[in-house]
Amino acid sequence: MHLTNSATAATVRHRRALRGTALAVGCALLFGLLAVLVTRHWQPLYRFDHGWIAETHSYARGHRAWTAAVQTLSDIGGTVTMRVLLAIAACWLWLIGARVLAGWAVAQALVGWGAQWALKLAFGRQRPSFTDPVSHAGGPAFPSGHAMASAITCAVLVGLFWPRAGRSGRIAACAVATAAVLTVGWTRIALGVHWPSDVLGGWLAAGFVLGAVTAAVELWRPGALARDIRRVNWRTRPRVQRVIAPSFRPARGDRPTDGADHPDGAAL
Q1: Distance from C-alpha of 109 to C-alpha of 118, rounded to nearest angstrom
Q2: How far is CA 32 from the centre of its chain?
Q3: What average pLDDT does range 21-41 have in this prediction?
Q4: DSSP labels for 67-93?
Q5: For the chain, where are the alpha helices, taking DSSP H only?
Q6: Which of 9-18, 73-82, 258-267 has the least mean pLDDT?
Q7: What are phi and psi of 240, to 5 degrees?
Q8: pTM, to two decimals
Q9: CA–CA separation, 141 vs 126, rounded Å?
Q10: Where is average pLDDT lowest: 4-18, 106-120, 172-186?
Protein backbone atom coordinates (compact mmCIF):
# COMPACT_ATOMS: atom_id res chain seq x y z
CA MET A 1 0.00 0.00 0.00
CA HIS A 2 2.80 2.40 0.87
CA LEU A 3 4.59 1.67 -2.40
CA THR A 4 1.37 2.18 -4.35
CA ASN A 5 0.73 5.55 -2.70
CA SER A 6 4.31 6.66 -3.36
CA ALA A 7 4.07 5.67 -7.01
CA THR A 8 0.76 7.52 -7.38
CA ALA A 9 2.20 10.67 -5.77
CA ALA A 10 5.25 10.52 -8.04
CA THR A 11 3.00 10.15 -11.09
CA VAL A 12 0.96 13.19 -10.07
CA ARG A 13 4.13 15.25 -9.57
CA HIS A 14 5.44 14.20 -12.97
CA ARG A 15 2.15 15.18 -14.55
CA ARG A 16 2.42 18.68 -13.08
CA ALA A 17 5.94 19.06 -14.40
CA LEU A 18 4.88 17.74 -17.81
CA ARG A 19 1.92 20.12 -17.95
CA GLY A 20 4.18 23.05 -17.19
CA THR A 21 6.68 21.90 -19.79
CA ALA A 22 3.95 21.40 -22.40
CA LEU A 23 2.59 24.89 -21.75
CA ALA A 24 6.05 26.44 -22.01
CA VAL A 25 6.98 24.57 -25.20
CA GLY A 26 3.64 25.22 -26.89
CA CYS A 27 3.69 28.94 -26.12
CA ALA A 28 7.35 29.20 -27.15
CA LEU A 29 6.63 27.62 -30.53
CA LEU A 30 3.65 29.89 -31.16
CA PHE A 31 5.61 32.93 -30.02
CA GLY A 32 8.46 31.99 -32.34
CA LEU A 33 6.07 31.67 -35.26
CA LEU A 34 4.51 35.05 -34.46
CA ALA A 35 7.95 36.63 -34.11
CA VAL A 36 8.96 35.36 -37.56
CA LEU A 37 5.79 36.81 -39.10
CA VAL A 38 6.39 40.14 -37.35
CA THR A 39 10.05 40.48 -38.31
CA ARG A 40 9.40 39.47 -41.93
CA HIS A 41 6.47 41.88 -42.22
CA TRP A 42 4.05 39.19 -43.33
CA GLN A 43 1.50 41.17 -45.32
CA PRO A 44 -1.76 39.78 -43.83
CA LEU A 45 -0.49 40.44 -40.31
CA TYR A 46 0.94 43.81 -41.34
CA ARG A 47 -2.39 44.91 -42.82
CA PHE A 48 -4.29 43.63 -39.79
CA ASP A 49 -2.04 45.50 -37.33
CA HIS A 50 -2.07 48.79 -39.22
CA GLY A 51 -5.76 48.65 -40.09
CA TRP A 52 -6.87 48.06 -36.52
CA ILE A 53 -4.53 50.69 -35.09
CA ALA A 54 -5.70 53.29 -37.63
CA GLU A 55 -9.35 52.71 -36.71
CA THR A 56 -8.84 52.79 -32.94
CA HIS A 57 -6.66 55.89 -33.15
CA SER A 58 -9.24 57.68 -35.27
CA TYR A 59 -11.96 56.87 -32.74
CA ALA A 60 -9.78 57.91 -29.79
CA ARG A 61 -9.09 61.32 -31.36
CA GLY A 62 -12.79 62.08 -31.61
CA HIS A 63 -13.79 60.83 -28.15
CA ARG A 64 -11.51 62.36 -25.54
CA ALA A 65 -13.60 61.33 -22.52
CA TRP A 66 -13.62 57.72 -23.74
CA THR A 67 -9.85 57.90 -24.30
CA ALA A 68 -9.31 59.23 -20.77
CA ALA A 69 -11.30 56.31 -19.36
CA VAL A 70 -9.26 53.82 -21.40
CA GLN A 71 -6.04 55.44 -20.21
CA THR A 72 -7.20 55.05 -16.61
CA LEU A 73 -7.91 51.35 -17.15
CA SER A 74 -4.50 50.94 -18.75
CA ASP A 75 -2.79 52.63 -15.81
CA ILE A 76 -4.67 50.50 -13.27
CA GLY A 77 -3.65 47.33 -15.10
CA GLY A 78 -0.06 48.45 -15.62
CA THR A 79 3.05 46.39 -15.01
CA VAL A 80 3.77 48.05 -11.65
CA THR A 81 0.28 47.28 -10.34
CA MET A 82 0.49 43.67 -11.43
CA ARG A 83 3.88 43.09 -9.85
CA VAL A 84 2.76 44.75 -6.62
CA LEU A 85 -0.17 42.32 -6.49
CA LEU A 86 2.23 39.40 -6.94
CA ALA A 87 4.50 40.81 -4.22
CA ILE A 88 1.57 41.10 -1.80
CA ALA A 89 0.51 37.53 -2.55
CA ALA A 90 4.09 36.28 -2.07
CA CYS A 91 4.44 38.07 1.27
CA TRP A 92 1.18 36.60 2.51
CA LEU A 93 2.22 33.10 1.40
CA TRP A 94 5.58 33.50 3.15
CA LEU A 95 3.93 34.61 6.40
CA ILE A 96 1.62 31.59 6.54
CA GLY A 97 4.50 29.22 5.87
CA ALA A 98 3.96 28.43 2.17
CA ARG A 99 7.55 29.34 1.35
CA VAL A 100 7.94 27.40 -1.92
CA LEU A 101 4.67 28.79 -3.23
CA ALA A 102 5.81 32.29 -2.26
CA GLY A 103 9.07 31.76 -4.14
CA TRP A 104 7.11 30.49 -7.14
CA ALA A 105 5.04 33.70 -7.21
CA VAL A 106 8.17 35.88 -6.91
CA ALA A 107 9.90 33.89 -9.65
CA GLN A 108 6.93 34.43 -11.97
CA ALA A 109 7.22 38.19 -11.49
CA LEU A 110 11.00 38.37 -11.83
CA VAL A 111 11.34 35.95 -14.74
CA GLY A 112 8.44 37.66 -16.48
CA TRP A 113 10.06 41.07 -16.08
CA GLY A 114 13.44 39.81 -17.32
CA ALA A 115 11.93 37.92 -20.26
CA GLN A 116 9.87 40.94 -21.25
CA TRP A 117 12.84 43.23 -21.59
CA ALA A 118 15.09 40.61 -23.13
CA LEU A 119 12.51 40.01 -25.86
CA LYS A 120 11.81 43.72 -26.37
CA LEU A 121 15.51 44.48 -26.83
CA ALA A 122 16.03 41.42 -29.03
CA PHE A 123 13.34 42.40 -31.54
CA GLY A 124 13.44 46.19 -31.17
CA ARG A 125 10.10 46.67 -32.90
CA GLN A 126 8.93 50.25 -33.30
CA ARG A 127 5.67 51.30 -31.71
CA PRO A 128 2.84 52.82 -33.76
CA SER A 129 3.61 56.42 -34.65
CA PHE A 130 1.10 59.23 -35.13
CA THR A 131 1.42 62.97 -35.70
CA ASP A 132 -1.24 63.53 -33.02
CA PRO A 133 -0.91 60.63 -30.53
CA VAL A 134 -3.45 60.29 -27.72
CA SER A 135 -1.00 58.46 -25.44
CA HIS A 136 2.72 57.86 -25.10
CA ALA A 137 4.84 54.87 -24.11
CA GLY A 138 8.57 54.26 -24.17
CA GLY A 139 10.73 51.33 -25.19
CA PRO A 140 10.33 48.73 -27.95
CA ALA A 141 6.87 47.38 -28.73
CA PHE A 142 7.14 43.59 -29.07
CA PRO A 143 5.92 41.95 -26.86
CA SER A 144 3.53 44.09 -24.81
CA GLY A 145 4.68 44.36 -21.20
CA HIS A 146 1.18 45.22 -19.98
CA ALA A 147 -0.31 42.16 -21.66
CA MET A 148 2.45 39.91 -20.37
CA ALA A 149 2.35 41.14 -16.75
CA SER A 150 -1.45 41.04 -16.50
CA ALA A 151 -1.61 37.49 -17.90
CA ILE A 152 1.05 36.21 -15.48
CA THR A 153 -0.48 37.90 -12.45
CA CYS A 154 -4.05 36.85 -13.16
CA ALA A 155 -2.98 33.26 -13.86
CA VAL A 156 -1.02 33.10 -10.58
CA LEU A 157 -3.91 34.52 -8.55
CA VAL A 158 -6.39 32.11 -10.14
CA GLY A 159 -3.97 29.26 -9.48
CA LEU A 160 -3.84 30.18 -5.77
CA PHE A 161 -7.63 30.43 -5.58
CA TRP A 162 -8.41 27.33 -7.66
CA PRO A 163 -7.97 24.51 -5.06
CA ARG A 164 -10.19 26.24 -2.50
CA ALA A 165 -13.05 27.05 -4.87
CA GLY A 166 -15.99 25.04 -6.05
CA ARG A 167 -17.12 24.78 -9.64
CA SER A 168 -18.99 28.09 -9.62
CA GLY A 169 -16.12 29.87 -7.88
CA ARG A 170 -13.63 28.57 -10.42
CA ILE A 171 -15.82 29.67 -13.33
CA ALA A 172 -16.20 33.13 -11.78
CA ALA A 173 -12.45 33.45 -11.11
CA CYS A 174 -11.56 32.43 -14.66
CA ALA A 175 -14.15 34.82 -16.10
CA VAL A 176 -12.87 37.77 -14.06
CA ALA A 177 -9.22 36.98 -14.84
CA THR A 178 -9.92 36.56 -18.55
CA ALA A 179 -11.86 39.82 -18.67
CA ALA A 180 -9.04 41.65 -16.88
CA VAL A 181 -6.35 40.28 -19.22
CA LEU A 182 -8.37 41.04 -22.35
CA THR A 183 -9.23 44.53 -21.11
CA VAL A 184 -5.62 45.44 -20.34
CA GLY A 185 -4.46 44.17 -23.72
CA TRP A 186 -7.23 45.99 -25.53
CA THR A 187 -6.43 49.32 -23.81
CA ARG A 188 -2.89 49.22 -25.20
CA ILE A 189 -4.25 48.84 -28.73
CA ALA A 190 -7.00 51.40 -28.22
CA LEU A 191 -4.47 53.98 -27.03
CA GLY A 192 -2.31 53.40 -30.09
CA VAL A 193 0.84 52.40 -28.17
CA HIS A 194 0.92 48.73 -29.26
CA TRP A 195 0.13 46.72 -32.34
CA PRO A 196 -2.40 43.88 -31.85
CA SER A 197 0.39 41.37 -32.51
CA ASP A 198 2.37 42.92 -29.63
CA VAL A 199 -0.46 42.05 -27.25
CA LEU A 200 -0.77 38.53 -28.63
CA GLY A 201 3.00 38.13 -28.25
CA GLY A 202 2.75 39.29 -24.63
CA TRP A 203 0.14 36.64 -23.85
CA LEU A 204 2.21 33.89 -25.48
CA ALA A 205 5.35 35.01 -23.64
CA ALA A 206 3.37 34.96 -20.38
CA GLY A 207 2.31 31.38 -21.05
CA PHE A 208 5.93 30.40 -21.61
CA VAL A 209 7.02 32.00 -18.32
CA LEU A 210 4.17 30.42 -16.35
CA GLY A 211 4.88 26.96 -17.70
CA ALA A 212 8.67 27.17 -17.48
CA VAL A 213 8.77 28.48 -13.91
CA THR A 214 6.22 25.92 -12.73
CA ALA A 215 8.08 23.02 -14.38
CA ALA A 216 11.39 24.23 -12.93
CA VAL A 217 9.99 24.40 -9.39
CA GLU A 218 8.38 20.97 -9.73
CA LEU A 219 11.69 19.47 -10.85
CA TRP A 220 13.66 21.30 -8.14
CA ARG A 221 11.26 20.55 -5.27
CA PRO A 222 8.96 17.72 -6.36
CA GLY A 223 5.58 17.95 -4.67
CA ALA A 224 6.45 21.13 -2.74
CA LEU A 225 3.89 23.28 -4.57
CA ALA A 226 1.10 20.80 -3.80
CA ARG A 227 2.11 20.63 -0.13
CA ASP A 228 2.09 24.42 0.11
CA ILE A 229 -1.32 24.58 -1.54
CA ARG A 230 -2.64 22.17 1.08
CA ARG A 231 -1.07 24.36 3.75
CA VAL A 232 -2.81 27.41 2.33
CA ASN A 233 -6.12 25.53 2.28
CA TRP A 234 -5.67 24.49 5.91
CA ARG A 235 -4.67 27.95 7.08
CA THR A 236 -7.53 29.70 5.29
CA ARG A 237 -10.38 27.25 5.81
CA PRO A 238 -13.21 28.39 8.12
CA ARG A 239 -12.71 27.38 11.72
CA VAL A 240 -15.73 25.87 13.45
CA GLN A 241 -15.61 26.74 17.11
CA ARG A 242 -17.53 24.69 19.64
CA VAL A 243 -19.62 26.80 21.93
CA ILE A 244 -20.03 25.07 25.28
CA ALA A 245 -22.87 26.38 27.37
CA PRO A 246 -21.96 26.77 31.06
CA SER A 247 -23.45 24.06 33.19
CA PHE A 248 -26.26 25.11 35.50
CA ARG A 249 -26.42 23.59 38.92
CA PRO A 250 -29.64 24.33 40.76
CA ALA A 251 -29.59 24.87 44.49
CA ARG A 252 -30.03 21.85 46.74
CA GLY A 253 -33.48 22.81 47.71
CA ASP A 254 -34.53 23.45 44.13
CA ARG A 255 -33.44 20.09 42.68
CA PRO A 256 -36.30 18.24 41.02
CA THR A 257 -36.98 14.86 42.48
CA ASP A 258 -37.13 13.16 39.07
CA GLY A 259 -33.48 13.92 38.29
CA ALA A 260 -31.92 12.65 41.49
CA ASP A 261 -29.98 9.91 39.76
CA HIS A 262 -28.45 12.29 37.14
CA PRO A 263 -24.82 13.40 37.86
CA ASP A 264 -25.78 17.08 37.78
CA GLY A 265 -29.12 16.62 39.32
CA ALA A 266 -30.84 17.84 36.14
CA ALA A 267 -33.75 16.15 34.54
CA LEU A 268 -32.99 14.21 31.32
Answers
A1: 14
A2: 23
A3: 95
A4: HHHHHHHHHHTSHHHHHHHHHHHHHHH
A5: 2-39, 43-62, 64-76, 79-95, 99-123, 145-161, 167-190, 196-220, 224-236
A6: 258-267
A7: -100, 115
A8: 0.82
A9: 6
A10: 4-18
